[in-house]
Design brief:
By secondary structure, the chain is mainly alpha-helical. The protein has helices at about 10-20, 30-40, 70-80, and strands at about 5, 45, 60. It has a three-stranded antiparallel beta sheet.
């Protein structure tokens, strides 16, 4: 059995991102806001860094494969802005 500890809560998602990227000043604005909007909508989930190091995100319950390119663009744009 595979157990993951991840969140679709906006504030917890921001906390997890700050742990994954401690040298960045991440706020709920701009491109980070777009990522957190997807977290809040449960399109993606951010794992708890204590249990899942590496910063990988997972599909949430509202992930739609037909919109994968759109989601990936948001994530890639955000990552490049770091």
């Amino acid at each position: 059995m595979n157990v993951r500890f991840e969140t679709c809560e906006r504030i917890r998602g921001l906390r997890f991102l700050r742990i994954f990227y401690p040298d960045k000043n991440l706020e709920d604005t701009g491109k980070t806001k777009a990522v957190l909007d997807m977290v809040k909508a449960d399109i993606i989930r951010i794992p708890d860094p204590k249990y899942h190091p590496g910063g990988r995100v997972y599909p949430g319950k509202n992930w739609e494969n037909s919109k994968k390119e759109e989601y990936m663009k948001v994530l890639n744009d955000w990552q490049q802005s770091l």
